[in-house]
Amino acid sequence: MAIFVLLLQGLFWSLVHSQTFPYVSFDGQTLANHSYVDLSQVGTSGSDSVQCITDLSTCCSYVQGPHRGDWYFPDGTSLPYPGDGDIIEAHTAERVDLRRMSNASTRPGIYHCDIPTNAVHDDTDRSIRATVYVGLYTSSGGYISISGGMSLTLDSDLNESSPRFTLTCISTGGPATEVTWTRDSTTVTQGTQTVFNDPVTAQYTHTLTVTGRLPGLYTCTVANHKPTTASASISVQTSFPPTNVTAVQDGPTSITVTWTPPSPLGDTTGYRISYNGGSRRGSVTISGSSTSIFTLTRLRSGETYAILIVGMSSVGLPSEPVQTISTGLVPFQAPVLHMSPTTTTTSITITGIVPRGSVVTGFIIQWWRNVSIGCSDVNQRKIEERGLFSNYTITGVEPGNRYAITVRLLNAAGIGQVSNTVAAMTEEDAPSGAPTSVRPGTITPTSITVNWDQVPCAHRNGEIIGYTVHVISNGTVEETVNVGSDAREATVFRLIPSTLYTVRVAGVNFAGTGPYFSTLTETTTGLNVSVTSSSTMSLTISWTIAENITVTSYTVSYSNRNLNCFNDSNSISRIPVSQSTYTLTGLEERTEYSITVTAYLPRGRTEARNVYGTTLTAAPTTSPTSIIIKVKTSTSVTVSWGSVDCRHQNGEITGYRLRYGEKGGGNRTVQMVSGDSTGGNTPISGLIKETVYTVQVAAVTSSGTGVYSHPLIIETPDNTFISLNGSVIANHGYVDISDIGSTDDSTLLCHTNRPPPPGGRHSDGEWFGPNGTRVGDPYRDYYNVPGLVRNRAPMIVRLIRNVNTGDPAEGIYQCKVKDSAETLRTLSVGLYNSGGGAIRAQGNPTFKATDPNEASPQFTLTCISTGGPATTVTWTRDSTTVTQRTETVLNDPVIAQYTHTLYLSAGGNYTCTVSNHKPSFASANIIVQAKPDSVAFQPVNATAVRISWNGNLTFPTTVSHSSISNLTGAVMSESSLVLPAGTTSATVVLEEDVGLDDGIDEYKHIFTLYQIILHGVRGLGTTETFTFGKKEQHY
What we know:
Elements: E1 3-4, H1 8-17, E2 23-26, E3 29-31, E4 35-38, E5 50-53, E6 70-72, E7 87-91, E8 95-100, E9 109-117, E10 128-137, E11 145-154, E12 164-172, E13 178-183, E14 186-188, E15 192-198, E16 203-211, E17 216-224, E18 228-238, E19 243-251, E20 254-260, E21 268-276, E22 281-287, E23 293-296, E24 306-313, E25 316-317, E26 322-325, E27 338-343, E28 347-353, E29 362-369, E30 381-386, E31 391-395, E32 402-411, E33 414-415, E34 422-425, E35 436-443, E36 448-453, E37 466-473, E38 476-484, E39 489-492, E40 500-509, E41 512-513, E42 517-522, E43 527-535, E44 538-545, E45 553-560, E46 569-576, E47 581-584, E48 592-600, E49 606-614, E50 628-633, E51 636-641, E52 655-662, E53 669-673, E54 680-684, E55 692-701, E56 704-705, E57 712-715, E58 721-724, E59 727-729, E60 733-736, E61 748-751, E62 766-768, E63 788-793, E64 796-801, E65 811-818, E66 824-832, E67 840-841, E68 846-849, E69 859-866, E70 872-877, E71 880-882, E72 886-892, E73 897-904, E74 908-916, E75 920-928, E76 933-941, E77 944-950, E78 957-965, E79 971-979, ...
Parallel strand pairs: 4-10, 18-25, 60-66
Antiparallel strand pairs: 1-13, 2-3, 2-5, 5-8, 6-9, 7-8, 9-10, 11-12, 12-16, 13-14, 13-17, 15-16, 17-18, 19-20, 20-23, 21-22, 21-24, 24-26, 27-28, 28-31, 29-30, 29-32, 32-33, 32-34, 35-36, 36-39, 37-38, 37-40, 40-41, 40-42, 43-44, 44-47, 45-46, 45-48, 48-49, 50-51, 51-54, 52-53, 52-55, 55-56, ...
């Protein structure tokens, strides 16, 4: 017979009130609770919806609030109203509909409708809500299954003649409309129950409770309207009872139960014995089907026990119980025992004679320590043993202690009388514990008094006969004192003043010396030392010695306590005993020293005393380190600095002085800034834009201002500049991409002093990526450059990080804005990840010269850098900075290529160093030959002249010469030769002159003007002119 189950509130309502409402209807048919409906057949109108119908027509309108019905998804959330989802609910006067608005809906499971009915619960609540369920699945879902098979649980006492047990199976996957239980193919209708667990997985728990020993094959079958069915079965067996059960008393508190296992054994896996004697009752389970005996212990003498035994089954029912009644236990008179003991340090063995005629099955032995030896703890123990008594060894007793021992014998009738008391003394052992609370007493420069408490009683292991006191220094026992057992203090003499000793005390008995208890104690000083500051570089030490101490000589040693700054230390050779002062000279100013005076005593002993002294203060002799200047705006900077080298602080740093002014100007501003020995920082405001300033910092002590630092040069920007986090980024500066954010205080800002153009609210500046692409505005141009967008504000153009469009490309980004003079300004900044932006030199500098024949030839050096922004470019000649006529041009923003040019006028070793804020720098150098110096001409003959100069030529050099008429100025001839490097002179062959006829018949003295040009392959040239006379000609 199929059992139709209504669950939860629906079940309660149906059973109590016998109402037909509410119910679920679909396609004009009434559905049983927990029925199945194909989800694809549910439509959008009232006719093809799943309808939850009630008999309460007056409370189901849309506007009547909490009393209207509701549909719920399997997960417990309520269905939305029309227009809010693919599965919705709709309300009418007497029902609430479930409608599917989209074919894409795939939310199968058990849906339920919670709706009011017309039943009257009481005078205050005019409606009662009920719940009905329906399974909505696609054509491939809703198939029911049973997982885990079936389980059996015993619910009643095993000893009952009619036990009760429960069978359980669990179904999932679809609604459980019908549940059928059978035993041996016969339907069972009583004791069934179904509980709805999970609407998402459609999990139901089905149980059948059976009363009585009813074995058989039980089957649970679950079905729904899919149609689909699932079933699970279990074979329930029952055990056979044991036979020939007996119970026999075998001691004063125990009963032995025996039985014959059933034949056949069947499903028997063990037995359970229950006993009840009034004041004592309980049960015990015994495994093993062949077991046939068990002894119950710890029962109560004089009581009669009822005993039940049943056979147990692994998957099944217990057998019928079998009962037996035991006899009572009767007390009896106990025997008397006589003993004699033997002992060791940790054991006592007793032997004795049992009185004739006594039946003994066990004994109780008890012992305790005798308090007569002065210990308050008795260390009492009691042990019960089974078996005949002849001798017994007590262990765990303590050496050197006296014990009292008694024994009581046992048999089945009860406990006998207490035996005579036997006294036993264990053998002594060395103490196992040390004296407690060892502590120093009176201390002098040459003696220590030590106090202690006695060894604890449990660790004496015998009678304490005395104590041993040791004084130890550097691992060696220096002095030993032995005192009696009643002593609690001892004084040790002949010690060294101001020395740390270990003092230890141990107890002694006849078996030996026990462990020591140690304490650290230092003798008082016999040497007193003081120090005074004599000057900034000296200290005076004075000392005295106690009258009872003999001294042979002294030494003085010292060391600088600031080991990070100084490593100077020294030791003064032996000083006569008559001398009691010494002055240390040549020390550091305002520096603390550790000074030790050592007194040498007889027998090779010494006493040392350490003091500290500080020389007087002076002004610092060096400037602070790590000075950093950060430009904040076009009119303000921030200066920070580190500590002064501690070797040159010369006292406590009380502050700093900051001195700054325009470079080349005469006025300097000096301001006092607070700080300590670690450094400081301060802002400087009110500066002039586009102005070069020098900044210096000096430390201050109580003795004055120290040395100012080398001037640092900083140039304030104009009103167009780039900043990040409130700090100005120098043109061609470096910025880590990860530092650029999406908020106002983390974006890269391009500033201008030009107000917004007419009709506009914001600046019209632009940002450009390394490849020249304009960075887009997300509100207009979308995202032209990956990872970055541009945003304008009054007098600001922001570069904002946009992680949604990828990572920005590394390279040089440029901002183009107009200033207040309508001049277009271009500012550059390098954006790189933490591993990029490192600058490098592209080859060595190149040398170039214009035509050496020009009146003022120009010479240039050019170096090229790539890889990162070129924030700072420095040219040096022979290690001296060159500042005149330098320029830097950005060639390629993608690879950050810059060309750096120097216009030079002198030879030397030139270095081009390019750096940025990575920090990263690169350099390259070139040697340029200087102009030949002190050029001299010496005629060799009528057609040659010798040219000489100071020094060797560094590179091959060309000598060009041309002849110019001194009458007409015409170039008459030209020639050149190349001289190798290292040449110091050359001979030039000149052309012979041709006489010129000026139309006057007379002799002319002809002179030729020669121009000599020396120009090296990589060097500065020189042009020299000289006149060379020729012979007379007659025309």
